[in-house]
Input
Amino acid sequence: KNQVEQSPQSLIILEGKNCTLQCNYTVSPFSNLRWYKQDTGRGPVSLTIMTFSENTKSNGRYTATLDADTKQSSLHITASQLSDSASYICVVSRYNAGNMLTFGGGTRLMVKP
Amino acid sequence: DAGVTQSPTHLIKTRGQQVTLRCSPKSGHDTVSWYQQALGQGPQFIFQYYEEEERQRGNFPDRFSGHQFPNYSSELNVNALLLGDSALYLCASSFEGGSYEQYFGPGTRLTVT
Output
């Protein structure tokens, strides 16, 4: 079964601290993995996209890693800001599946002052 | 360049009624996907339209139907609404010949009472 599991479900950190979110997937055949940021009640916004051959990609303070052998990914947020408070969703795309995406349940991050 | 737009932003319906949600894709995009996101959960794939035809479908009943118009805009129709249909409905567009990056709209919040 094609699934994407994320941990933790929720996380509270202090402003300025770093954090790492985890994603494990069983989606096959693998095409690419994306991390999205979703503010409450809004549509997801893409942070990074990684294909099979990429094992790290950065977007400002966001750095995503991918281990295609173990089917794991992480999203590291550096020097967190209050505006980082949101849900972070790991999404995996299946190869030759018409770009159908499988979403994880998300990690709800709250950054406190 | 307008991104993905959806209408209406909020909608309240009664059980048994029918609803139509609309989506205009990002300029240059020809593929539209629809997702349902229940509160606190990740989005679930409903279906995808390309060249005015449904190309992929997730695990949703026939009460959920759609349409894509020649200008690539799309509608999602839900018949015989149930309380459990209350959710944020997201539309995402992409370009078939591109990198498969999907851009999400802001969503339509549907409440069924």
